[in-house]
Amino acid sequence: MINKKVNNVQEALQGIENGMTIMLGGFGLCGIPENSIAELVQKETRDLTCISNNAGVDEFGLGLLLKKHQIKKMISSYVGENAEFERQMLSGELDVELTPQGTLAEKCRAAQAGIPAFFTPAGFGTEVAEGKETREFNGKMHVMELAYKADFAIVKAWKGDEAGNLIFKGTARNFNACMAGAAKITIAEVEHLLPVGSLDPNEIHIPGIMVQRIFKGDNFEKRIEQRTVRKK
Prior knowledge:
Elements: H1 9-12, E1 21-24, H2 34-43, E2 48-51, H3 62-67, E3 71-76, H4 83-91, E4 95-98, H5 101-113, E5 117-120, E6 134-137, E7 140-146, E8 152-161, E9 166-167, H6 173-179, E10 185-194, E11 213-216
Parallel strand pairs: 1-2, 1-8, 2-3, 3-4, 8-10, 10-11
Antiparallel strand pairs: 5-7, 6-7, 8-9
Helix pairs in contact: 5-6
């Protein structure tokens, strides 16, 4: 059995260079690869194009990379929780490509499946469709969207084994699952790294064939993005 385990985050991120395009999994602050983001900050990797559902928050997640101006372009769906993102976008310091959430997920999944492009009705008649091919299907107009091309995909899973098989937990599955295998190299950061054969095959969300490197993360903060409590 192929063993894809690497010893630490430094070894996992080898080969990531300035100017590359990186997919980063997570939904809000749920299921983000915290250790890998912190290592990118430490490496001072710059001019990155980051594909992620959102841009983290100030002082956490991708917000740490934004703070140090390491991101050149952000491709996202929802970016409303980050004041530094807003400042950089409005000042022209950051190139931003906003994409409907379902389209963003499908562009990742298409890359994962080796599909170069697809048609979707989302965004037709808006700025999203500008410069793109459109076509009518069953009386409804659609926009052609290209699959993403990324150098690395960094995902975070709840459990994984040394062969790269992954299990996600809750909403962490939303974008991590479709990003795994959608880039030239996929790195999986996991909470629990187990020997091969430890996972129930019926519970595996992503097979190891889609993962090239896997390592056990530590000291996960798992911050809550918006804390809502019931009144007494």
